[in-house]
Specification:
single chain, 420 residues, Rossmann fold, two-stranded antiparallel ribbon
Length: 420
């Protein structure tokens, strides 16, 4: 009798343990993907032959590494996406001829609200560049330690070589903890598709119009188009240290250029406060200028030969004051022609009126926007930022305002001569 009670108790204990394990485990198996999608998805990850398929995917690739509460929504979105691909299988089939991986790229490293959208668009508007916008959007932005560093660099290496992973792959191989997956990223099989001119082209959106009703991105076709360009370009705000790119920069088989975009921290914080008025200014400013300092001294630190000839620092203010001059210098640095189409785009998007200006657009009067913070920030706020960022401002050529009068007088320049 005692023995039977023991086994009953043991059975219930095992059942309870199994339930607890299932409840806390964020890895959820993904069994519903049909064989059609498996053939095409795994074909994008084969090297060197992208058309060889793997009928036995690894266990890691079968599991989503996100908070379990998001799994039902993920499964629904992915199931609908896969059904669409199956209905349009003629388009979503394998690419007959896949070009070699890209060997030349540019990465724009900057911070949130630093005017990077305009600089990114300089490449997005160029026919010889394949531009992607914020490919690391699923990562936490403000981490100064090495958390996610390897994952970020691994992802960037693939993107720069035009070996794009699909979104399923990312959500199954990188631990995002409790971050909510992006519904739009999952639907499009690509994040910020609408911010890339190539991804909205007829070739990659044959079933829709101007990035509407396109259906999910077909990764093999994206790879093919990206590899056909002279270079791939991506813009990131979630790379804390340029130093993390060292292995890619030292790769003799890949020609990578780094454009480090900086902005006056007073302008950055003014822009952020408009969008996030309750943010903790002191802590956020300290973190912002810490990143500025780390990446600002990297080209001049000991043993930094890995950046020689591959690093260009650009101030947002210089671009704003003379967009034609500095755009031409940027293009020369990366080896692209300053085309008539790009010149026309710059003229249209740097002399806009107030009716077309928004917080997120590139269409604005850039020279006026550059100094707008001098009219909106209080002198106390400006003083806090200046005191926190004194050495960074000196490094980049930004002058402190010593009084309220000096701050408001736009005839008194608070920026030193151009860095370029």
């Amino acid at each position: 009798m005692e023995a039977r009670k023991y086994f009953v108790w043991l059975g219930w204990a095992c059942l309870a343990a199994t339930f607890i394990f299932a409840a806390v485990n964020i890895y959820v198996s993904h069994d519903f993907i049909n064989s059609f999608h498996e053939r095409n998805r795994y074909a994008t990850h084969q090297d060197p032959n992208p058309h060889i398929t793997d009928p036995h995917p690894t266990k890691e690739d079968e599991l989503y590494q996100v908070d379990a509460k998001f799994i039902p929504d993920i499964l629904k979105i992915v199931a609908e996406r896969n059904a669409f691909m199956l209905e349009n299988s003629e388009y979503y089939g394998p690419v007959k001829k896949q070009l070699p991986k890209q060997t030349k790229g540019v990465i724009i490293v900057t911070q949130y609200r630093s005017g990077s959208s305009f600089l990114g668009e300089l490449f997005n508007q160029h026919n010889d560049a394949f531009y992607t916008f914020e490919p690391m959007t699923m990562f936490l932005t403000y981490r100064g330690d090495n958390t996610y560093a390897e994952d970020k660099v691994r992802l960037l290496r693939r993107i720069l070589k035009c070996d794009f992973p699909d979104i399923d792959y990312l959500y199954k191989t990188v631990n995002f903890h409790s971050l909510s997956p992006s519904e739009q990223c999952l639907q499009d099989n690509f994040c910020f598709r609408e911010r890339s001119r190539n991804l909205c082209s007829k070739e990659l959106c044959p079933l829709g119009n101007r990035c509407k009703h396109c259906g999910p991105v077909h990764i093999p076709r994206v790879n093919h188009m990206c590899r056909s360009k002279k270079l791939s370009v991506t813009k990131v705000i979630r790379l804390y240290k340029i130093e993390w790119l060292r292995k890619i920069l030292e790769d003799p088989k890949y020609d990578l250029k780094v454009i480090h975009l900086v902005r006056d921290p007073r302008g950055i914080q003014s822009s952020r406060l408009k969008l996030h008025p309750t943010m903790t200014l002191a802590a956020n400013t300290a973190m912002t200028c810490d990143r500025h300092w780390i990446n600002g001294i990297a080209p001049f630190a000991n043993n930094s030969n890995w950046l020689v000839g591959k690093y260009l620092r650009v101030r947002y203010e210089d671009l704003a004051m003379d967009p034609f001059k500095f755009s031409n210098q940027i293009y020369r640095f990366v080896g692209l022609k300053f085309t008539t189409e790009v010149k026309n785009w710059i003229a249209k998007n740097t002399q806009a009126n107030n009716q077309t200006k928004t917080q997120w657009t590139t269409n604005r009067n850039s020279s006026k926007t550059m100094q707008s913070w001098r009219k909106t920030l209080s002198f106390d706020t400006v003083s806090l930022i200046q005191n926190t960022c004194a050495k960074v401002m000196d490094l980049y050529g930004y002058k402190p305002a010593s009084s309220e009068e000096e701050l408001r007088n736009l005839e008194i320049p608070l920026i030193a001569k151009s860095l370029l």
